[in-house]
Amino acid sequence: MHELSKQFRFEAAHTLNRAIDVEPSRRIHGHSYRAEVTVRGAADPDSGMVVDLGLFSRALAEARDGLDHRFLDEVADLGPATLENLSAWIWRRVESVCPGLHKVTVYRDSEGDACSYFGPRAA
Ligand SMILES: Nc1nc2c(c(=O)[nH]1)N=C([C@H](O)[C@H](O)COP(=O)(O)OP(=O)(O)OP(=O)(O)O)CN2
Ligand SMILES: [Zn+2]
Q1: Which of 25, 29, 44, 67 has a 20 to 30 Å separation from 53 between CA atoms?
Q2: Quick check: ipTM above 0.85?
Q3: Proportion of the chain in helix, strand, coil states, percent, rounded to 5
């Protein structure tokens, strides 16, 4: 069994309703995000690959395009633009083209923030 991961970065703006830091969070502001998508599987004995990283990359490009340089409040089916919702949104976008999808993590490196999503069926 192997875990194979691919990352992409995106820059985006949002607003957020919070119980603390209410005013600055409500104002439109931006973050630099890094997403990591991980699949689990056995390497095919002929190709030596779990999945070709080139195919993996194509699958992630569409998700990145839906987030990069976007106003996240307007992204359909996202909800409040938290790391939690971003990781679940990316999961839903890539699950059909990523067999063995195991984990989606979204990082906000400037703050040391990260959130991982293991899918709707994970305990
Ligand atoms: N559980 C979560 N909590 C918070 C999230 C989140 O995604 N999940 N996100 C935010 C905000 O996006 C917020 O803008 C980050 O705020 P904060 O940590 O207070 O840091 P700064 O505003 O100083 O961040 P900068 O990146 O330096 O602007 C809050 N909570
Ligand atoms: Zn923010």
Answers
A1: 67
A2: yes
A3: 35, 35, 35
Residues with CB under 6 A from ligand 1: 16, 21, 25, 29, 31, 82-84, 110-111
pLDDT at residue number 40: 97
In the numeric block, the tokens 């070709």 are attached to 52
**Domain 2-117 is classified in which CATH homologous superfamily?**
6-pyruvoyl tetrahydropterin synthase/QueD (3.30.479.10)
Spatial CB neighbours of 39, under 8 Å, sequence gap ≥ 6 = 3, 4, 5, 50, 51, 56, 98, 99, 100, 101, 102
For 26-35, the pLDDT digits (tens) are: 999 999 999 9
3-state secondary structure of 77: coil
pTM of the predicted model, to two decimals?
0.94
